[in-house]
Amino acid sequence: MDFEYDAKTVEMIGKLEAFMDEVVYPAEPLAHEQMQAAIKEDSWSPPAVLEDLKAEAKKRGLWNFFLPGDDGAGLTNLQYAPLAEITGRSIQLAPAAVNCAAPDTGNMEVLHMFGTPDQKKKWLEPLLAGEIRSAFAMTEPKVASSDATNIETSIVKDGDDYVINGHKWWITGAMNPNAKIFIVMGKTDTSAERHRQQSMILVERDTPGFDIKRGMHVFGYNDRDHGGHAEIEFHDVRVPASNLIGAEGEGFAIAQARLGPGRIHHCMRSLGIAERAVEMMCQRASERVAFGKPIADQGVVRDWIAESRVKIEQLRLLVLKTAWLMDKAGNRGAHTEIQAIKIATPETVGWILDKAIQVHGAGGLSQDFPLAEWFAGMRTLRFADGPDEVHKNSLARAELKKHR
Amino acid sequence: MDFEYDAKTVEMIGKLEAFMDEVVYPAEPLAHEQMQAAIKEDSWSPPAVLEDLKAEAKKRGLWNFFLPGDDGAGLTNLQYAPLAEITGRSIQLAPAAVNCAAPDTGNMEVLHMFGTPDQKKKWLEPLLAGEIRSAFAMTEPKVASSDATNIETSIVKDGDDYVINGHKWWITGAMNPNAKIFIVMGKTDTSAERHRQQSMILVERDTPGFDIKRGMHVFGYNDRDHGGHAEIEFHDVRVPASNLIGAEGEGFAIAQARLGPGRIHHCMRSLGIAERAVEMMCQRASERVAFGKPIADQGVVRDWIAESRVKIEQLRLLVLKTAWLMDKAGNRGAHTEIQAIKIATPETVGWILDKAIQVHGAGGLSQDFPLAEWFAGMRTLRFADGPDEVHKNSLARAELKKHR
Amino acid sequence: MDFEYDAKTVEMIGKLEAFMDEVVYPAEPLAHEQMQAAIKEDSWSPPAVLEDLKAEAKKRGLWNFFLPGDDGAGLTNLQYAPLAEITGRSIQLAPAAVNCAAPDTGNMEVLHMFGTPDQKKKWLEPLLAGEIRSAFAMTEPKVASSDATNIETSIVKDGDDYVINGHKWWITGAMNPNAKIFIVMGKTDTSAERHRQQSMILVERDTPGFDIKRGMHVFGYNDRDHGGHAEIEFHDVRVPASNLIGAEGEGFAIAQARLGPGRIHHCMRSLGIAERAVEMMCQRASERVAFGKPIADQGVVRDWIAESRVKIEQLRLLVLKTAWLMDKAGNRGAHTEIQAIKIATPETVGWILDKAIQVHGAGGLSQDFPLAEWFAGMRTLRFADGPDEVHKNSLARAELKKHR
Amino acid sequence: MDFEYDAKTVEMIGKLEAFMDEVVYPAEPLAHEQMQAAIKEDSWSPPAVLEDLKAEAKKRGLWNFFLPGDDGAGLTNLQYAPLAEITGRSIQLAPAAVNCAAPDTGNMEVLHMFGTPDQKKKWLEPLLAGEIRSAFAMTEPKVASSDATNIETSIVKDGDDYVINGHKWWITGAMNPNAKIFIVMGKTDTSAERHRQQSMILVERDTPGFDIKRGMHVFGYNDRDHGGHAEIEFHDVRVPASNLIGAEGEGFAIAQARLGPGRIHHCMRSLGIAERAVEMMCQRASERVAFGKPIADQGVVRDWIAESRVKIEQLRLLVLKTAWLMDKAGNRGAHTEIQAIKIATPETVGWILDKAIQVHGAGGLSQDFPLAEWFAGMRTLRFADGPDEVHKNSLARAELKKHR
């Protein structure tokens, strides 16, 4: 047992921190300004400055960390974890700057693992190059999406095509006009066994019948900087049969394969948010004076700071161990640990953000600090990829089995 | 001791509930639509339908409940409490519909108690008639406003005028172009005793040098339906000396007088939010099916519903007792109780809203349900009129004194 | 609505507080000493000083508050509530001193409502006179007693007798040799409808086959001062048929009638414990110095004190309202409220005791202060008369029904 | 970074688990019986069966794990951690069985590091052999012991002797008649610099003037199995000057050196308690039926089980990392981490025990299960070696410094 990062990780951390200090943090004010303008203009493109960051990141060799093997940066999950955390510190910019932003990472993984050579050439390559963005269309408004077997979208074979009808929402990234390709989950055979009814299929943005209705709000945010969350209707959307990913009936299995890494990536980045929130809380508490002394001298504020540190240290270690286990035993072998961090992260980081907001006074809720927006994002993680309650139930069932 | 409402209250509850059922709830979808349009147009006026509601409310004699005595509806605080709770159930519309919305209620109280006949004629009368709106400018960006003695805005006598310079933010309602009159808190004498330095003065919206910079966001919301929260700069704003409220040095005392009722009104209305959230939680849980049974059959969801009921019942009684005590012993006599409900309400109602959101799935965070917006509003109450920590500290000091 | 106690209540409070100040509190050290000696001698009698207190209480007319009507003190539940709270402040002595201790109060109520004239003469009269004690034998070790239909003890008619076989535990008060009479719940007809199988029967302590095995511990305590909690076996225990309370099959209904008041009495007394814990916490915090200042100046300690006050005020009002509702609408009409206080009280008071202990340092856990013993007692309330989870589930079901 | 135990650790875990399965768990019922008898006889010796366990442990080479280097088992802190956890699963027996019980471990460390050859021969050797026990006398009743500079016991040089006067309590293990040697902390020079006033000195049990007054209770427990917690008075206790440990004025520094390992050992063992509680909770929930289904099928119980697992996994990793850091950077280098686990452990494990108790019904509070006794022990950890509040304050100060 050893708690020290390996040499490769230490080297990459150094490079990434330099990039953050020299390039990303300095760009934050401009990006914030561009996004405030985007709100006024109702534009859904990411901040223009992002392209500069991407160019610089590529130049520095900070790109596609998330993808193991030769097509990516050649890192293990364990090596990627601290890097993802660092990008989380500037969550609106850094993950996209190094081409490691959700939902594209998961989509690239799916194409990498299950795509045909043609599919890879057409969509994986420009995604890996950071030229286009993508989305993943699974959640539906009319059913409890915590239970994936509820899905109602139909994918029907018709000659050499598939025809898609359905209604999706919370399709993250889809409002961004540069999100060119969508992975859509639907049912090809409602008479098959429960977990063999679903298939995944690729749909291009400009396909007739593909109708983006609106962006969903999260609290009052549109999440424009990462392409919002779209409500989409599919009216007889026709795509070539070659757009199917894998075979018919493999949709559920592919979704499961996709979710493991997606969940841990969220957790890794969230640690970065938590660390930055603690930093901000400490700085504000030291500067701000009330009733004759800095807020940092108040016992209750110190209690929050200490609890934050204690919580973060525990959470990070479990995220790292999970990454290590995924490297060693595969996503399935780390199933329980992935659930555990999925449950623990939003609660822990949300708690810290709430305290950081309180230390900032009303300003902490406003556009002058990123804390409230981070809180909103963290709150969504209690639903994303399944609500806490579903994961807890499943984790408890496994625990109960161990002791029977 | 008797826990039954008196006949007058029962009668008013009946009338108000009829108004809610027949007029307010049916208007909610249209108001929501108008506000979504206002976001697009960047308009800061309240939804147009509100004027219809106000006319109807006046016709039904449902008006100015908050103001005791002949100028208002002649109700005690205890009689007003359940009415305020009912208006809280449609918080974006109902309080304004019956002319009982913050911050106007507090401003009208100030003018009613401390205004000169001229001030009353010019500003109180149109406020009581619901013709104009108002704002209260106290909080400043550069200092911890939890400590009112920190205020830096200056009010300097110059001949027959006062000249005001300063910087305020979180001035609720001020973005509404119909907010015609502002009560501004500043210092007239920085050499006086700590609590005698402050004065309050009336400033009209169109006074030269009165510069509204922007609306503050709360979790991404602008709170347009109640006029937003403005950042305002005062550059040599000159008003007649007759605009002073009370005498020089009385600002702190007037502020204190204003805060008691303001705080309890927030708590009363918040109970209505909590009740409606429980209703929505129960309905959604009954309708939504996951893994083969309604969510309402899940033990964890039932735990939330039961806890919500247990918490609300306790909180409401403390709010009612506080109202009763204010009627009996005055605002000062109910000081501890006002602090207690100020501390308990946002935590309790925020907790309930969080659970109601979770039962609604991701939709609960979106513009399709009011829950997230209510959560945001409730979160601000942990700062409004002083952060929790200040009230707890003060309440504990009083408790410690009792046992020495 | 009125939050003031009536004249009768105010008068009784005055008398009872005088009794506490003049008689009970001064007797506490001696009682503690006698109980520490009882531990050494393994004696199960209450402290000898209790008889003096009872004599004095009777003389002062402070007796049988709990029993409405002419046979008791003629008080309503609402009038009794603040008196019960006051006795809770010295929970080991005061309730028994005024003959209002559990489980006798519930047993006297049962005999009062359902007893035959003979049963009343033989057992109710000496109980009302404070000459003997009693116990209530329902809980069984082999089944989840939260579900009363699980009960396995059999009560079989045999000629003019009933013969009882079964196994009970947690029979509070039963170790006290002066607990002369037991109300035993068992099944007379296992083929009847689920809630008509149970009956209640009176068993005298010295009946052959009635075998007290041992006293159950609660966090290491024996609870000797209120007669411990016995494990009892019934081996062919034969009693006259006239010992049956009510008719066969009425046991469940009688148990329900008994539980309502029993639950609220526990809650009332628990408020007294909470108030005394806050007093002790404040006093200790003011006296004890660490790192150069009184603990009372630490922000975290103030937070605990403030939260304690805020919680108690809310809880007390709900207990009082419940008492009022029982007076007005009967125990069944106050069913939801009784559940609510049953859920809220142990959690709230347990929280306060935990903080009071923390302020006292390790001493707070020891025999030098009553806090840890009170905590243990409060913890049992999360099981007594049904665990929290059962009540929450039932309360949620009722709430869900309201909104369908 | 690597989360796998090394080969030595895996081997030792195997041996220790075999010892637990074959020897310790089977001895638990007898030990429990012996301790229940000890309560009746007011005996303070550990259960007789312990000596058999010790003999067997020695034979198996499972001895003195805690002591690094050749005098102990030659393990690192990181290697010891999982072993300590395993002993924690049978906390009343196993740590003492392998001679790794508090407070002896800390005392042996002190003698090992700071003892003279004579002191080592006389007291360290029999301690390492498990022939005698020891105690550590620091806490005093009259002052807040969270602040070590408060200590009032005096150690005065008089010729070739030191004379000790003072009053201690909570001296763990001291009631055991086999606790032959005491390390006593007092002040040799009240005029010296704050942290140079204290010294440590060795006092034998049978020294005149050494007066053991009583055993302190924890809740209702005496903690007889590990020698209770004594209140002790020192009246002119005279010991040879050669009994001083280190030099005059080094007491505070030695105490600090002693506390680091002591704290982490408590945390390691507590993990074992937590694991066993989860096991018991799962087993009970699976066996017990209420309202027609096993308690394990209740959503709320599953929530507790899942949360327990999530909490334990995080806590264990932080304990392991702290052990690793102590090996690598020394106790001082792991200062923050030691504080973090000291804060997190009692809260986390106490929470789990509370839930395990609730699943067990009232039996969970009784002598029939060890859960309530474990809860009591865990509650003391929030005071032992300094209350949570002191550690949080210190940890927050360090965090604040990082961000200034």
Structure commentary:
Four copies of one chain form a homotetramer. Chain A has three domains: 101 residues, Acyl-CoA dehydrogenase/oxidase, N-terminal domain (Butyryl-Coa Dehydrogenase, subunit A, domain 1), CATH 1.10.540.10; 113 residues, Butyryl-CoA Dehydrogenase, subunit A, domain 2 (Beta Barrel); 151 residues, Butyryl-CoA Dehydrogenase, subunit A, domain 3 (Up-down Bundle), CATH 1.20.140.10. The first copy, chain A, is globular, with a radius of gyration of 21 Å. With 404 residues, chain A is α+β, with helices and mostly antiparallel strands. The model of chain A has no long low-confidence stretch (mean pLDDT 95). In chain A, strand 9 and strand 10 form a beta hairpin. At the A-D interface, helix 7, helix 8, helix 9 and helix 11 of A face helix 7, helix 8, helix 9 and helix 11 of D. Chains A, B, C, D: Its EC number is 1.3.8.7. Chains A, B, C, D: Its cofactor is FAD. Chains A, B, C, D: Keywords: FAD, Flavoprotein, Oxidoreductase. Chains A, B, C, D: It is an enzyme of class 1 (oxidoreductase).
List its traits.
404 residues, Butyryl-Coa Dehydrogenase, subunit A, domain 1, Butyryl-CoA Dehydrogenase, subunit A, domain 2, Butyryl-CoA Dehydrogenase, subunit A, domain 3, 3 domains, 4-stranded antiparallel β-sheet, 11 helices, globular
Q: What is the secondary structure topology, with strand pairs?
A:
The structure is a homotetramer of 404-residue chains.
Chain A: H1 7-41, H2 49-59, H3 77-88, H4 94-97, H5 104-114, H6 117-128, E1 133-137, E2 154-158, E3 161-172, E4 179-187, E5 198-204, E6 210-215, E7 229-240, E8 244-245, H7 251-287, E9 289-290, E10 293-294, H8 299-333, H9 335-360, H10 371-380, H11 388-402
Parallel strand pairs in A: 1-4
Antiparallel strand pairs in A: 2-3, 3-7, 4-5, 5-8, 6-7, 9-10
